[in-house]
Design a protein that fits this description.
- Helices cover 5% and strands 31% of the residues.
- With 143 residues, the chain is mainly beta.
- The termini are far apart.
- Bound molecules: zinc ion.
- One of its GO terms (cellular component) is cytoplasm.
Length: 143
């Protein structure tokens, strides 16, 4: 008498959930106005932040320190600003939301995005849920 037990064990594997593809792992972030701003293969919550302003650091070029993060920014470049920092000045080439002009981030080199080693996203500027204010939107309001 043939055993059918092993056959049912094999067929059960077809019921397994499909493995998460890289596309499914992409995260999408929106401006507070609901405009799509950023798609990225890492959660912003897991990325390091700048000590100076708390901005989220996205590595946009490969370097000795690590590989570039895969992302696409949907934002308009606007006029750069010169900020005073401890020990010198810092030029920021800023990007704003195409719909409401809210500042979403900046980099240290002229546009387009990814011409510099890093892209910085303002703390609280983006949310993963359309139409919902991120929990850290008011962080550093008095800074
Ligand atoms: Zn917006």
């Amino acid at each position: 008498m043939p055993k059918v037990v092993s056959r049912s064990a094999v067929s059960s594997s077809t019921d397994a959930q499909p493995t998460e593809s890289s596309a499914a792992a992409l995260k999408v972030y929106y401006c507070l106005c609901g405009e799509f701003i950023l798609v990225i293969d890492k959660s912003l919550a897991t990325l390091p932040r700048r000590k100076t302003d708390g901005a989220i650091i996205i590595r946009s070029q490969d370097s000795d320190a690590g590989k570039a993060i895969v992302f696409k920014l949907n934002a308009n470049p606007i006029d750069p600003v010169l900020l005073e920092r401890k020990g010198g000045h810092e030029r920021q080439y800023r990007f704003s939301c195409p719909r409401c002009q809210l500042l979403v981030g900046y980099q240290s080199t002229p546009p387009p995005v990814k011409t510099g080693p890093y892209l910085y996203i303002y703390s609280g500027a983006l949310t993963q849920t359309q139409g919902q204010v991120p929990h850290d939107a008011f962080d550093g309001e008095n800074a």
